[in-house]
Amino acid sequence: MNKELLKKINVLYVEDEESVREFTGKTISSIVHNIVVAQNGQEGLEEFKKAYGTNNAFDLVVTDINMPKMNGLDMSVEMRKIDPDILIIITSAHNDSTFLKQAIDIGISSYTLKPIDLYQLIEEMSKTVEPMAFKKELLNKNKELQNSIDTLNQNMKNSKSQITSFFNAQDSMILSGDGIKPTECNDKFLNFFGIKSLDEFIEKYQCICSLIKEDHPMLHKLDINKNSNWIEYFLQLPHEDRVIQLLNHNGEYKYFQIYINTYGVNSENYVVSFTDITKLKEKSKLYEYQESHDHLTDLFNIKKFEQVFKQELSRSIRYDHNLSLMLIDIDNFKHYNLNYNADIGDRVLKDIAKILKTHTREQDFVARLGADVFAILLPETTAENSVVVAQKIKEQIANHKFNFCDEKATASFGLSCNKNSSDSEVIMNKAKDALKVSKDGGKNCINIKE
Q: Which of 328, 88, 295 is nearest to 304 (CA)?
C-alpha cells in the first residue's frame, strides 16, 4: 500500500446508506489529501462537475451502484463523458454478472463487494491510482527532458566544450549529428556501450541500429549496411512508440524512450536523447499483472475472466468446438473465519487455488470470481468430460490436508457447456443454477445443466 501516494489524491465518495457513508468516508478522509462525500449519483455528478478543471479536481471516485436519483453506473458514464481518464471504484452488495459486465463496459477501474472490507478498499484505491502516478511521473520526465533540449537549442552557438559539458550534465544518453553521421555524444552514451570515443563506436558498430533488439519493426524496414537514416524513421513514429531496447557492453538489454530534436534551416541537424525507462517498464508489466490477477490467490480475476470467456466462446463457435464452464464454491467457508480468523480463511483459499491450478491443463483458464467462488473454463471439453474433471478436483479438495488446521474442506460444483447456447450470460446462469442445486442438495457434489 502506497500511503504517500494516497496522501496526494482528491477523492469523491458517493454512498446513499448513511451509516456506511459516515464510517467509510471518515476512514478514507484520514489517508487522502481531500475527500468530498455525496449521498446519491446526482449529487456526486454535480460535485464532480464543480471540481473538474480546478485544483480540487478529483483523482478517484469511489461509488455504490444502487442509489436513488441516479445509480453509480449511470453517474460513472456521465463522469467519463467529462473526463475519460477518471479512475472509478464501485462498491456493491451485488455479485451479479450483469452488473459486472456493465461495469467492465463502462471502464470501471476496480470492484469491491459489500459489506466493505476497509483494508481491501484502501488496497484497491492504492493499486488503482499507482498507474496514474506512473503516467504523471513519465510526463514530468518528458517535460523536463524537453525543457533541457529547448535550452540546448538556444545555446547551440556556444563553444564545443560548453556543449559537451551540457551533454554530460544530462541524466539521459545524448547523441547529436549533422544529419549524415553522429558528431557528439555524452559520457553516459560512451559508458553504456563500453567505449572511449564516438569514433570507436562508429568503427565498431557502424550504426546504433545494430544494437537494437532484433524484434523491433524498424530492423525489417532499414538496411543498416547502407547508411539508412534511422532518425527519419523514428521521426515518423508517434512519440509514445519511440521506444527501443538497446544492448549494453554487459550484454544486457535496457528500455529507452527516444526524444529527437532537429534544428537548422532544413532541420539537417539533430539531438537525440535516450532516456532509460527500464524500471518504469518493469513497473508497467507489474501493473498489467495486478490488473488481471487476484492479489490473494494469484489466479486470474473476474475482469480478466469476463474478457477470456467471451474470446474462448467466440473461438469455440467459430471452429465448432466444445467449451465447458465450471463454477466451484467452497462449502461452509464462513466457518473458517468464524472459528479461526481471516488469515486461516485466506490460507484455505490459497491452498484450493493451488489444487485447481495443479489439476487443470495449461490451456484451461482458472479464475477467482470473488469471495470463495472460483471458475474454470475448459476449452475443447464436452459436458461429459467436464464432469470427469470436476470429480477429480472434488476428490483432491476433499482429501487435501491443510498444514495450518486439522479440518478438511469440501466444495460444490456447477457445470454448463456451450452445446445449446452461444451466449456467455446464458452459459454462466446455467452453471450458477447447477451450483445452487449442488449447494441445496447437501453440498460436496457435482451438478450440470446443459
A: 295
Q: HEC profile for the chain?
A: CCHHHHCCCEEEEECCCHHHHHHHHHHHHCCCCEEEEECCHHHHHHHHHHHCCCCCCCCEEEEECCCCCCCHHHHHHHHHHHCCCCEEEEEECCCCHHHHHHHHHHCCCEEEECCCCHHHHHHHHHHHHHHHHHHHHHHHHHHHHHHHHHHHHHCCCCCHHHHHHHHHCCCCEEEEECCCCEEEECHHHHHHHCCCCHHHHHHHHCCHHHHECCCCCHHHHCCHHHCCCHHHHHHCCCHHHCEEEEECCCCCEEEEEEEEEEECCCCCEEEEEEEECHHHHHHHHHHHHHHHECCCCCCECHHHHHHHHHHHHHHHHHCCCCEEEEEEEECCCHHHHHHCCHHHHHHHHHHHHHHHHHCCCCCCEEEEEECCEEEEEEECCCHHHHHHHHHHHHHHHHHCCCCCCCCCCCEEEEEEEHHHCCCHHHHHHHHHHHHHHHHHCCCCCEEECC
Task: Select from 3.40.50.150, 3.90.470.20, 3.30.70.270, 1.20.1250.20 the CATH code of 293-448.
Answer: 3.30.70.270
The answer to whether 61 and 76 have CB atoms below 8 angstroms apart is: yes
Tens digit of each residue's pLDDT (9 = 90 or more) over 77-88: 999 899 888 889
The model's pTM is: 0.44
Give the range among 5-9, 313-317, 346-350 with minimum mean pLDDT: 5-9
Domain boundaries, the chain: 3-129, 155-282, 293-448
CB 97 within 8 A of CB 425: yes
Distances (CA, A) of 14 to 27, 83, 277: 14, 17, 37
Amino acid 371 reads: A
Over residues 281-328, the pLDDT tens digits come to: 777 666 777 788 888 898 999 999 999 999 999 999 888 899 999 999
Written as nine digits, the cell of 168 is 554530460
Fold observed for domain 155-282: Beta-Lactamase (3.30.450)
Superfamily grouping for domain 3-129: Response regulator (3.40.50.2300)
